[in-house]
Amino acid sequence: MKKVFSLLFIVLICFCLLHTCKSEVKATFVGVIEEMINDRAAYVYVTKAENDAVYGIIYVNLAKNPNEKFKVGDKVKVGYDGTVEPTAPLWVTTLTVELVE
Fold this sequence. Notes:
By secondary structure, the chain is of the alpha+beta class. It has one helix at 2-21, and strands spanning 27-38, 41-49, 57-61, 75-85, 90-99.
């Protein structure tokens, strides 16, 4: 009986951990890549943001879309968790990034 409760407890903990690790996009902005840091990150100038939540230059993790080759001048739509780190430049936890026509 102890083994069953132990196993159930472990499964419950694993389920809870998996559930809390799942991140969802809570905000987006559109911007233009101003400078490539490397092929996995860039500084993006925000041109349009939901509720003007972010502005200026933002550090973006381009590795969230490894199938796309980004370059300076590309217009991108970035999805993030809604939190903006007050650094210079601003920094967000990038969840999605895609090219915009």
